[in-house]
């Protein structure tokens, strides 16, 4: 690790001493008798050994059981609290400084800031971030901040340990500890963040991105990797303490703790935070029918009539991309699907609904008769496409209609173009909902394939 010199010294017992080049101090890991269930893994990556573990300033304790970490954190890793401020009874702020210790992966951030606030009587938020540099944070445009005046101060719910830094969250009513990060050190480097917390119960639920045998989680050293839509890849480890460890490779640490006496109350608090979900239309819960390549609208209608004749209770009929002209978005085949503008009304007569597909890979070729493909032309004028690294040249790919460009939905120009095209198309082809298909692309140099 850059900046550190490692050296073995033989004493009556073998110790591994780490000399910190910057301060000339000798780092000696403190390794008290930590219960096995409370060991915090100091070597989550592969290839742990005694030498590699001690190079990180951690404790080495091999066992017969492989699930329990053999390399675990010493008690003198982490951060210390340099100062604490309380601008109001409901807000607490602290400045943290990293303790002199070896690094796991390098580029540790030396000074951090903590901001904690009671956002309501039943919601605590705390965020840990770089004190001097802005880092990526998941946009919270739909999540409200402190907008009420809780009846109790934050000190009734949260307390800070100074050395090493830790947070303890308790129930206000009976002081039961719910979330206690003092069991392990905070790690906060440029591309590796870790926070562990002892929990008040082993009744742990959630992490729905995986197939679980039971709703209640197994806490026997289970790790669940998670790749979320709007955050860095991360993982969650559960252990028998009971405890949880969060790991991620970027961003900040931003937590909400929701208090409730029942699971239902906790869900209610969660919905107060993020807003209530959209209630789906009743008909969308019914049976739905779709297939590729009906060939023509007359064949679609034949299918509908056949199912109506046997009283099959299905609510929704789809058409796949074969309704389009040469598989081009915002078009329809005016020969094989000439009556498509009236198809929704035909279904509505019997209480059924119509959903059509859009496949957002926009063809660069002309339309039938060598006429202009106006959706592509308008998108090009709007600079709506994903580009190469120069920020100008559209990235070309190969999808259903042939050579294509790809809408860049992170661009407001693209959003405006998409909304305009969709409104134009809806006026032409009436329908009840939209099926949008995404694609996985393999890109090499200037070429992408579907």
Primary descriptors:
14% helix; 27 strands; elongated; eight-stranded antiparallel sheet; Immunoglobulin-like; five-stranded antiparallel sheet; alpha+beta; 450 residues; Spasmolytic Protein, domain 1; TIM Barrel
Ordered list of secondary-structure elements with their pairings:
Layout (H helix, E strand, L loop, with lengths): L3 E7 L3 E7 L4 E3 L22 H6 L3 E2 L10 E2 L6 E10 L2 E8 L12 E10 L2 E8 L27 E4 L4 E5 L6 E4 L6 E3 L2 E8 L22 E5 L7 E6 L3 E6 L4 E6 L4 H12 L12 E3 L7 H13 L4 E6 L23 H6 L4 E6 L3 E2 L10 H8 L15 E3 L2 E4 L6 H17 L4 E4 L5 E3 L2 E3 L1
Parallel strand pairs: 19-20, 20-21, 21-25, 23-27
Antiparallel strand pairs: 1-2, 2-3, 4-5, 6-7, 7-8, 8-9, 9-18, 10-11, 11-12, 12-14, 13-14, 14-17, 15-16, 16-17, 22-24, 23-24, 26-27
Protein name: P-type domain-containing protein
GO molecular function: alpha-1,4-glucosidase activity; carbohydrate binding
Main location: membrane
Descriptive overview:
The structure is a single chain. By secondary structure, this protein is an alpha+beta fold. It has three domains: 4-72, Spasmolytic Protein, domain 1, CATH 4.10.110.10; 79-274, Immunoglobulin-like (Sandwich); 282-449, Alpha-Beta Barrel (TIM Barrel). It is 14% helix and 31% strand. The chain has six helices and 27 strands. It has helices at residues 50-55, 263-274, 297-309, 343-348, 374-381, 412-428, and strands at residues 4-10, 14-20, 25-27, 59-60, 71-72, 79-88, 91-98, 111-120, 123-130, 158-161, 166-170, 177-180, 187-189, 192-199, 222-226, 234-239, 243-248, 253-258, 287-289, 314-319, 353-358, 362-363, 397-399, 402-405, 433-436, 442-444, 447-449. The strands form six sheets. Strands 10, 11, 12, 13, 14, 15, 16 and 17 form an eight-stranded antiparallel sheet that branches. The chain has a five-stranded antiparallel sheet with strand order 6-7-8-9-18. It has a five-stranded mixed sheet with strand order 22-24-23-27-26, with no helix packed on it. Strand 16 (234-239) and strand 17 (243-248) form a beta hairpin. Mean pLDDT is 87; it is low at 1-24. GO terms for molecular function: alpha-1,4-glucosidase activity; carbohydrate binding. Keywords: Disulfide bond, Glycoprotein, Glycosidase, Hydrolase, Membrane. Residues 29-75 form the P-type domain. Belongs to the glycosyl hydrolase 31 family. It comes from Sphaeramia orbicularis.
